[in-house]
Each structure stands twice: as structure tokens, then as C-alpha cells.
Write a structure and sequence with these properties.
Layout (H helix, E strand, L loop, with lengths): L1 H17 L1 E3 L5 E2 L9 E2 L2 E5 L6 H6 L8 E2 L1 H13 L3 E9 L2 E8 L2 E8 L6 H7 L10 H16 L7 E9 L3 E9 L5 E8 L6 H7 L9 H4 L6 H16 L7 E10 L4 E9 L5 E9 L23 H17 L6 E9 L4 E9 L5 E8 L6 H5 L12 H14 L2 E10 L5 E10 L3 E10 L3 E13 L4 E9 L3 E10 L8 E11 L6 E14 L4 E15 L20 E15 L10 E11 L7 E15 L4 E14 L20 E2 L7 E4 L5 E4 L4 E12 L9 E13 L8 E3 L2 E6 L6 E12 L2 E12 L6 E2 L1 E8 L1
């Protein structure tokens, strides 16, 4: 054994004496033969370094004096030195018992500049590249930076942007690094082709996906920027669309984009296979969990035999069953739908299987991609947290809630194995989007001339999920101001608490001005996924000025019973129940939206009344292929005095353009005239109203649907009656006033409008012609409104 050791040492000595050289390529040679045995050196000599300290070089070596080393150690040392980014070349050689490390230092970057860029600012490009001022110059990093800049331009629709680099030597071994950018033209999407679709036209499918063709104003919305990830997401949107309309066999065969470099345009082609349309067959529930009876859960089934198959209905049923069994003490229960297709009759029978499920716990919820929204805003949308039982149904519900917030352009939740077999890590990937909105609206009326409203709102204030809004508006004789704030998770609970400050001034009444200011305190909570309850307390103070100069109708100020200036205050408690099954809040195509509000005023303040208002709207697709949407709406309201006397004037109900288009605000209903019946003093309001409307909308004919223009035709009807100020004529100061229009006379209007899903936000314009009206009604035939995100 000792002889063998001496022989090894002798071989090693010969190898060291002969000289080993390792170049930047990592080749280790000894007279043409690779070293295979261990060697030992007594010291390390660093050469070629001027700025980098020798200790930094030695610290990155895997070789140290007195310890044996071999080829692998030399290779690893070379890699480590290159990985520092400080050196352009590294050579390692051995002379006697000395390891010689010769390095060539990278130049130091004195300054990084960008030339030719206009669409992306310098500050944004500096975040993209890795090359930094006073950092070491590195060829590999530079190549990566060039590609990163190109990717940044591709993300804004400029795929043909070119990037070159220029190095300018300066004193001290430094260089100035310049990225020369030719931004090129915008890479457009000229065509989106759908192949294989029969049930729905290209235009309808184009509405479903987020990728859009290039148009006149596409540079504002950027929806025509091609992105491979977005195209994959569009595939999922198409699947959901077909699955919810009976096409359970639907699949996307392929989707791809071809770049025409000559015209710098993409042609997107999506090939689909629709399959047959199915309806639900038999639907039942089976349970293998002791204590859970399938029959007792049948009332939760959303899927009905004979109705068109819908994956959403199946998901809603799974959610409902999962919630019920969890409340009964089975958090791990797993609900699995089993479908049985009948290809002949085109039916799908569904059995919901309730099993015990695998016991697993949430180890961690990891949130990624949120650059603005706080983590806790995302976490609170989950009904589970670290340590809770893992439930896939609750995860899907959290995903839907996050999507409904409209804070993110994309939401994806995946799972990874945890540290133990029964542990799961939830990975939440989100991408923030703009949540601010700037809106303008207005119209023209025969009583108030032109009116305009400007408001600014933010749905995700400071990334905290809070909502704020400020609004100002008015016309020739009116002004309105308001500020609102809402905290959606008050005290850490799913309670939306907030306040509204408001002030209005109206001088449209002959001879006097009304000022109203106050505050509304509210708090709301969900009862179910579709039902929401809001309670509120509102205090307002109303003042009247200028009445003493117009003594011909002092009774209009019957609220305070004073002929001179006066006013009153109101304190009211209210609740509102809201119900919604709308498939889309921006452009509903299916579903119901309804709400009822009841308000009691008294509590020791001047006003005493009990008021009830209600409204419901039903949306239904009249034609899927033509994207024809029908809407039916109805509403009603009633107010009665609770103080034993008549109602005050402005405690009445008022109806106008918000209910029946073609009429002004407070445009219909009872009014006060002078004794001659010729001077219209103002609206007196009523105790009861009813209204209804029917509306049909469709894409604007003869215009590309990519522009987002829709044509609306409508008919509105309403009545307001039952004024409760007093009866008969009013007399004061020897002058008599008359109340007219207190009967249940219906008003009606027909009209048409255009809705534009513009890059600035929804823009609406309408024209309404009253076809049933009274001579004293205030008419407003034209109206418009718009809003934009920022």
C-alpha cells in the first residue's frame, strides 16, 4: 500500500513539473494527455487583475493550498470565475507547486444610454436590461439585453423593432454602452380567421376572445397586440363559450399566427370542432359518505332535465353541494360530476357523486405577479387559508371572485406538492390592470339646456381594493357634487362599508333655489353568491332661498310652511336587497338583475315617510348567431307619510330621464301652476310610480364588429301620480296656485341609440321621441354618456 502511494505522488510531481494549462474553454492538458489523478499546490498566484482584488479571485476557486485537486476542480473554478461577470478570459496553469490564475478583466460600463426610443421610455428600458452603470461589461449579458428590448417592443405590438449596440471606450478601462433602437412600425393583426364553426358566426366568436383585429383606434386599447399567452387564454374562452351553450364535445384543433413580414401584419387562424349540441338528460345525486343523503341535496341542483347543457350550471351545482356538505361537517368531501352521453338523442345525463375525498391541507398560498395590488387583497377572496382543508371547489370560487374584481387582466391558480404528502401549495398568478376610470356624460333638455357630468373613480385605490369616486356636474340652473368611499372588507370581514358626501343646487324652479347637502353611511354584505344586502343611514339638510321675492307660490314651500327662506332636515334608515345572475356586468346577454329598497324617515327629524322602490331587468339572447340581445325591465315605487299629515314636497317621488328616456329629470308627474294655469312653477312629485321598458340591441349593421358598435332600439313607459302636499287650489297672500297632472296618466317614448365599446370605455348616445305626454312635461330627447379607464 505504501509503495502504491509513493508511486502516485511521483506521478503527481511529474504532472506538476510538466505544467498544466486550463484556458477559458476549460481544456486541461498535460503534454497532450488529460490529468486524471489528484495533485497538490502550495500557493495561488493571481495575475492580470487591476481592479478586482486577488482575494476575490481566490475566493471563487475550489482549489486551495495543501488540498488535493483534479480536473473537475479546475473546471469548476473556471466556471465560477466566469460566473462573476468580472472577467472576459480566465487561464489556470500550474508551475511547480504554484497554481497560476491569469485573468483578463471585463471593462466597466461607464454609462448605459438608449437612442431612437420614443414608444418606451429610458426608465422602463433600464428595468428590462441587466447591463448597469458601473457594472462589468459582459458579451453574454449584452446579447440577452438586446433580446429583452426586442421582447419589450413586441409586447406593445412592434415585433419588427431592431436593436444594435455600440461601445465607446473611455479612460480608465471603461466603456459607454449605447443601445441603438429602430422601433419600426406597429405590428398589426390584419385578420382573425375561424375555421370549422357552423353554429356561431365569425363575428360572434370574435366578441368572445380578447385578441382583436387592428382598427382605427386600436393603438389606444392595444387589444390588437399579438401575444402567444393571450391566444392560449382565448382558446379557454372559446371552450367556456361553447360548453355553456350545449357543445360538450367542442375542442380547439389549433390556433396560430403567421407574420407577414412584408406588411408587418399577423394573420391569426383558429380551427375548431364544434360537435353536436346536447341537452341535459336525467340528473341525480349519489353519496358514499355516511350521513349525507343524496335525496336531501336535490334542491341544490341547477341543472334541469331537458334544458340546454351548460358547464356553468354544472359548476354552480357542484359549488352548492360542496357548501352544503361542508356545513354538515365534511370539509374533505369531493363532488364529482359523471356524465353519460346519449349520442342518438343528444342528451347528457349527470350524476353528482359525493365522496369522502382525499385528506389534504393547504400548506401555503403563494401569490405572484401582483405589482400593485396588495397580497392581503388577494388572500381575502379565499374561503380557506394556511392549515385549512384543501377544497378544489373553494379554489374555483376564489378564482371567480378575483376575476370579478376586475383588478387583474388574468388570474390563474395552480397547485404544487407541499412538504408532506398531505400538504398542498396554492400558487396564485395574477397580472394587474388599470382600475381607474374617467367619465363624462351629458344631454340637452328644453328646461335646463345642456347638462354635463364629469367623474373620476378608482376601484383599487393604492392597491388596497378600496373604491373612491368624485363627481361634479350640472346645467344652466343646477349643480351636483359628490364624493364616495368604500372599504370592501370592513374590520376584516366581507362587509363593504363606506360613505357618500353630496351637495346639489337647483334654481330651475321659478323664483327660488333649492340647496341639499348631506352624508350617506352604508354597510353591505353578501347573503349568497347572487344576493346582496345593504343597509344605510342618510342625513340631508335642505334649504330654500329667494322665496320671499316670489310670493305667487309660497305653498310650494309647504315643507317648512314659511313664505320667506326656510328648510328642513331628514334622517332616514334604509335597506336594499340586490340580486344578480348576469353573465357580464358590462354587456349582459343572459341573466336577471333585481333590487328592492325600503326607507324609513323620522327619528325625530323634520321628514316622516316610508318609501319603497323596486326594479328588475331580464336579459336574454334572442339570436346567438346574430348576437341579438333582448331586455325587459319593470319598476315601481310608493311613498306614504308616517307623521299623520301630508308629505313634504321633496319627500315625494320624482320620475324623469333615468326611468323614461325622452323626458327631463323630474320631467313627468304632478306640477304646480299659477292661478292662470300658464306659469309652470315646478314639479310637485307623486306618491306612486310604475315604469316598464323593452330594448333590443345588436351589432351595428354594415360596420365591422371589431369596432364594438351596437345599435339599440327601445320603448319606455311610465306614470307618476298621487301628490300628497294638499288637495285643490293653494292660496297665499291673495294669490292662488293650482296642482295639475295628479292622475294616473301614462307617458311613453320610443327611440334608438348607439353603444360603443370604445378604447375610452363604454360610450352611449340615444335619441328618444315622446309619443304619449302632457303639455306641461319637461322634454329631453337627446342624451349621451361616456367613461374611460386610466
Amino acid at each position: 500500500m505504501k509503495a502504491g502511494s509513493n508511486l502516485l505522488n511521483a506521478v503527481s510531481a511529474v504532472a506538476l513539473t510538466a505544467g498544466i494549462v486550463v484556458t477559458g474553454a476549460g481544456a486541461v492538458t498535460l503534454a497532450g494527455v488529460a490529468i486524471a489523478e489528484a495533485a497538490v499546490i502550495s500557493r495561488v498566484d493571481v495575475r492580470g487583475n487591476s481592479r478586482v482584488d486577488a482575494s476575490t479571485v481566490r475566493g471563487n476557486l475550489t482549489i486551495s493550498p495543501g488540498a488535493s485537486f483534479n480536473n473537475n476542480d479546475i473546471d469548476e473554478s473556471v466556471k465560477r470565475l466566469f460566473a462573476t461577470g468580472l472577467f472576459s478570459d480566465v487561464q489556470i496553469s500550474v508551475s511547480g507547486s504554484t497554481l497560476i490564475v491569469t485573468v483578463a478583466e471585463n471593462q466597466i460600463i461607464n454609462q448605459v444610454v438608449f437612442n431612437g426610443n420614443k414608444k418606451i421610455k429610458d426608465a422602463n428600458l433600464k428595468q428590462v436590461v441587466q447591463s448597469r452603470q458601473l457594472g462589468a461589461y459582459n458579451d453574454l449579458i449584452l446579447q440577452a439585453d438586446v433580446q429583452a428590448i426586442r421582447d419589450a417592443y413586441a409586447a406593445i405590438g412592434r415585433s419588427d423593432a431592431t436593436v444594435t449596440t455600440r461601445l465607446v471606450p473611455v479612460d480608465g478601462g471603461r466603456v459607454n454602452l449605447a443601445f441603438e433602437i429602430n422601433e419600426g412600425d406597429r405590428t398589426k393583426i390584419s385578420t382573425i380567421n375561424f375555421v370549422g364553426n357552423q353554429a356561431f358566426g365569425d363575428g360572434r366568436l370574435a366578441d368572445v376572445i380578447t385578441t382583436k383585429r387592428s382598427g382605427l383606434l386600436s393603438f389606444l386599447s392595444r387589444k390588437d397586440v399579438f401575444d402567444e399567452d393571450k391566444l392560449r387564454a382565448d382558446e379557454e374562452l372559446l371552450r367556456r363559450f361553447y360548453y355553456n351553450r350545449g357543445y360538450a364535445d367542442f375542442r380547439v384543433i389549433s390556433s396560430f399566427a403567421e407574420l407577414d413580414e412584408t406588411n408587418n401584419e399577423y394573420v391569426v387562424t383558429i380551427t375548431v370542432e364544434e360537435g353536436e349540441r346536447y341537452v341535459f338528460g336525467d340528473v341525480s345525486i349519489e353519496s358514499t359518505v355516511p350521513g349525507i343523503d343524496g335525496e336531501s341535496l336535490k334542491g341544490l341542483i341547477e341543472t334541469r332535465s331537458g334544458s340546454v347543457y351548460s358547464a356553468k350550471d354544472v359548476e354552480d351545482t357542484i359549488l352548492a353541494i360542496s357548501d352544503r356538505v361542508a356545513t354538515q361537517g365534511y370539509p374533505f368531501a369531493e363532488i364529482t360530476p359523471r356524465g353519460d352521453r346519449d349520442y342518438t338523442n343528444r342528451t347528457i345525463s349527470v350524476v353528482y357523486l359525493v365522496d369522502e375525498g382525499t385528506r389534504a391541507y393547504v400548506e401555503r398560498i403563494e401569490i405572484r405577479g401582483n405589482t400593485r395590488t396588495r397580497d392581503y387583497v388577494i388572500r381575502r377572496e379565499f374561503d380557506l387559508s394556511e392549515g385549512d382543508a384543501f377544497n378544489q371547489v373553494l379554489v374555483r370560487r376564489a378564482k371567480k371572485r378575483l376575476e370579478d374584481l376586475k383588478f387583474f387582466s388574468s388570474v390563474d391558480i395552480s397547485t404544487q406538492p407541499g412538504s408532506q404528502p398531505d400538504r398542498v401549495v396554492l400558487i396564485v398568478d395574477v397580472k394587474d390592470q388599470s382600475t381607474g376610470e374617467f367619465g363624462v356624460g351629458g344631454g340637452y333638455s328644453n328646461s335646463d339646456g345642456f347638462t354635463a357630468t364629469v367623474d373620476i373613480s378608482e376601484r383599487n385605490f393604492l392597491g388596497r381594493g378600496q373604491y373612491i369616486r368624485a363627481s361634479v356636474g350640472g346645467g344652466t340652473d343646477s349643480r351636483e357634487y359628490s364624493v364616495s368611499f368604500t372599504e370592501p372588507y370592513f374590520l376584516g370581514y366581507r362587509l363593504a362599508a363606506g360613505f357618500d358626501l353630496f351637495k346639489t343646487t337647483d334654481s330651475s324652479y321659478n323664483g327660488f333655489e333649492e340647496d341639499v347637502q348631506g352624508i350617506n353611511l352604508r354597510i353591505g354584505a353578501p347573503i349568497t353568491e347572487n344576493l346582496y344586502l345593504t343597509t344605510a343611514f342618510k342625513y340631508s339638510e335642505t334649504k330654500y332661498t329667494g322665496i320671499s321675492t316670489v310670493t305667487s307660490y309660497p305653498e310650494l314651500n309647504a315643507i317648512t310652511r314659511t313664505i320667506a327662506n326656510g328648510g328642513h332636515d331628514t334622517g332616514a334608515l334604509s335597506y336594499t336587497l340586490s340580486y344578480s345572475t348576469l353573465d357580464d356586468r358590462m354587456l349582459p346577454r343572459e341573466g336577471i338583475s333585481a333590487r328592492i329598497t325600503q326607507e324609513y324617515a323620522g327619528l325625530g327629524f323634520d321628514s316622516d315617510y316610508f318609501k319603497t322602490t323596486a326594479k328588475a331587468s331580464y336579459f336574454h339572447m334572442l339570436s346567438e348567431s346574430g348576437d341579438l340581445i333582448g331586455q325587459l325591465s319593470a319598476g315601481a315605487g310608493h311613498v306614504t307619510s308616517t307623521g299623520g299629515g301630508n308629505l313634504r314636497v321633496f319627500d315625494h317621488l320624482f320620475v324623469g330621464q333615468e326611468t323614461i328616456r325622452g323626458f327631463d329629470t323630474r320631467g313627468i308627474g304632478p306640477r304646480v301652476f299659477d292661478s292662470t294655469g300658464t306659469t309652470n312653477i315646478g314639479s310637485a312629485g307623486g306618491t306612486t310610480y310604475f315604469n316598464g321598458s323593452v330594448e333590443v340591441s345588436a351589432p351595428m349593421p354594415l360596420i365591422s364588429r371589431d369596432l364594438g358598435l351596437r345599435l339599440n332600439v327601445f320603448a319606455d313607459a311610465a306614470t307618476l301620480y298621487g301628490n300628497d302636499i294638499a288637495t285643490g287650489d293653494f292660496t297665499s297672500g291673495g294669490v292662488t296656485q293650482t296642482l295639475v297632472g295628479n292622475s294616473m296618466d301614462w307617458r311613453a317614448s320610443v327611440g334608438a341609440g348607439i353603444t360603443w365599446a370604445s378604447p375610452f370605455g363604454p360610450l352611449r348616445i340615444y335619441y328618444a321621441e315622446p309619443v304619449a305626454k302632457e303639455s306641461y312635461d319637461d322634454i329631453k330627447k337627446f342624451g349621451f354618456g361616456a367613461s374611460t379607464r386610466f
